[in-house]
Queue: 2 jobs
Job 1
Amino acid sequence: MTGRSSGPNRWRGGPREANPEDPSSRVGWTAAIDLYKLWAMRSLAPILVLVLMGCAAEPVAPALTGPVLPTAQVDSFAVYHLQRYEMWDWSSALQGVTPYSVDATGLPVDTIDGVLYHHPIHIVHIALATLSNSQVHGDTALLHLVERWTSQMVQEADTDGATISFPYRFGFDLHGYASEHMSAPWYSGMAQGQWLELLVRLYQITGDARYRVWADKVFHTFTDVRPSTQNPRTVAHIDSDGYYWVDEYPNRGRYDLTFNGFMFALRGLYEYDQLVHTANTRRILLAGLTTIKRYAPSFRVIGGISYYCLRHKVQSAKYHTIHILQLHDLYKVTRDPFFEDMANAFKADYWAP
Ligand SMILES: [Zn+2]
């Protein structure tokens, strides 16, 4: 005891060579080690805790520097906050019509050419519908199921630290055209927008900060309009007239200009803007609204079914109805009568309830 209690004074000048034959030396070293442990506990413990927290927490995305889309056409629109039930609840509309298989991981799977894949859009549709169910029925088991799916899909996603992209790991002939083949991996602005919507909802429901961090990283993919040669994960571009497009099928610069996918993405960007309220989230949303307002008449077919896309001008009665519902929602968000007039014009052109 004496040796230990006298230790601190002995070793103030620093450690000395231990002499195994000198009992006082051994006592002194023991005291030094005890002191070292004490110092280490007091000094290093907070650092260790921070390191462990850093390992456990999702690294946040770097903040955006300066305004995004500096060269884009951006008109002013009012943006009203809507409750979710005030908008078209397409995810509820999917309930009961989405039987799905799961793989060994528990995630819904699609079988394509005999191979199992995690389909980013199909999974997010099922997840949003399941989340709606969990909210309507207060079913926390369903909520936890969606959370497990989401964690796994984020784990499987492609990231560079600042962005998260949900890849299609299978090829796809757009409209069935072999000439319009999308080579895997490819990325879709529609999938990015709907995952953004899901992550915003999960954050609002659970308060779990991971969902906010993941949402930020998904949002960042909408701010990068470099060509696919510079960013193979690009899902948006600015056309030669300065209009900002979110691309459901970017197809390495051969833009499809898909109407419904763009407006689905805008829904996610709107939900995220309502959560985050920054100049950049609002600018992206307004840039998208500006483009929709400019180009909606180009999708219209007077007296007929609207075009699914401007590149191929294919037509689909199912998507014509979706266009009408989406335009109606944009009217509710902005109260700009243009969108309601256009929804009504589309409906007058063709309506098959
Ligand atoms: Zn097309």
Job 2
Amino acid sequence: MKNLLKWIGIAFGGLVGLLVLASVVLYVIGSARLNKTHEIQLENIAILTSESAITRGQHLVEVLTFCQACHGDNLEGEVFIDESIIATVYAPNLTSGQGGVGAIYTDADYVGAIRHGVNPEARGLMIMHSDVFHNLSQEDLGAVIAYTKSLVISVFSLGLEAFISVDLLQKMEESRKEFKDSPPDSRIRNEF
Ligand code: HEC
């Protein structure tokens, strides 16, 4: 009986050890993939500041491209996933106010994030829906950026924090890979 218990103990300990090892390996592989950078030739899009460009951008954002569904009604940022144990993910403040990406982003950074789903360090964003926006015409993308930048809303503390399973993040990142590394397809145009 004692022997049996001993062997059960050893088997259980071995199993736990294996699980820990597997998690560490998955974490290391996952982190390496998430830290992968994408080489993208970003277009130089002229961002107009005219009233008409901003109005066109507002139309695209509010009616067709749904940025506000994730980034908040006025693009001031919003908690996007709130599952404390698994993940807290913020869709950041996109405006030029304090705490907003507009305060630090260059125009090219906006193009990278919206069209290609990469951040200014060229790392892949995880949830951002760039697949939908990948083939926006330059004029429309420029208008979306013009409108976003024209807003000034200060919200602090909305950065991206993800305590999410690395494996899940990796899958989300990879599912959008083709949009990160390719130029927009001029044959396909998302015209609105
Ligand atoms: C399905 C939800 C969703 C939609 C729709 C969406 N976003 Fe995002 N976006 C996110 C999330 C979440 C992030 C945080 C980073 C990530 O995805 O890992 C993000 C990140 C960004 C960033 C990068 C911010 C940073 O921290 O570097 C920009 C810029 C951005 N979004 C702009 C837009 C614009 C403009 C639109 C509409 C054309 C839009 N997003 C639509 C969810 C969304």
